[in-house]
Amino acid sequence: LSPLAKDSPIGRIDENSFSKYTGCTRFYQLPLSRKTQDGLSDSKYAVMTEIQRASLPHSLCGRDILGAAKTGSGKTLAFLIPVLEKLYRARWGPEDGVGGIIISPTRELAGELFDVLKNVGRHHSFSAGLLIGGRKDVDTEKEHVNNLNIIVCTPGRLLQHMDETLNFDCSQLQVLVLDEADRILDAGFKTTLNSIISQLPKWRQTMLFSATQTKSVQDLARLSLKDPEYLSVHEES
Ligand code: ADP
Ligand code: MG
């Protein structure tokens, strides 16, 4: 039995089974791969937060997401889980290249969410890299970026690789995440983000998460969102 054959047939929310999962409150009730389930329980994640409950049934069946929930409400797992599941179901492997890109507005936040990815994704065999510039030598990075399956990055460093790294190829990208999307869509990143987007395939899944709901129709158009689910959650705490 290959490692994949063991649990791969479960794990798909299609449009028909979608409604079964909208009332779920715990991660184990979702049709996630064993590898993701184990990563979640290793980290003691059991009960979903409200934004996770609201968004995962949609994101896991491949829909584009505009998720808004205040800081500290668990948005990171709301996008990391579907990234892992999407690539896992696609049987993404070392030769398949970049399958997921997660963009964060700051190096610090990118580093934090990379740590969560390493924890929750520890049983998966994807290669993941943190591309944030600064202290790291870009030339060393260039030798490795082509082998990454999941990239966590800041906009500037990602664009630098798109511009400078030989054969850097995002043409098969399956899923794009903008964390703190309101900050990334802000004027300061406009040119950078537009250049990035123009180099990504349009048929990918796109998820935007932030503390406030993104309302600009223009922004949504430039990201080529397909009939996105708007999910706003204001959790009592
Ligand atoms: P946000 O991005 O919305 O500000 P985070 O994703 O950083 O929030 O999560 C905030 C905190 O909540 C983190 O410490 C994280 O480990 C914790 N957390 C997230 N989801 C859960 C969960 N389902 N159960 C318990 N703790 C969680
Ligand atoms: Mg966050």
TrEMBL record:
Residues 56-231 form the Helicase ATP-binding domain. It comes from the Eukaryota. Belongs to the DEAD box helicase family. The Q motif is unique to and characteristic of the DEAD box family of RNA helicases and controls ATP binding and hydrolysis. RNA helicase. This is ATP-dependent RNA helicase. The chain holds residues 75 to 311 of 776 of the full protein.
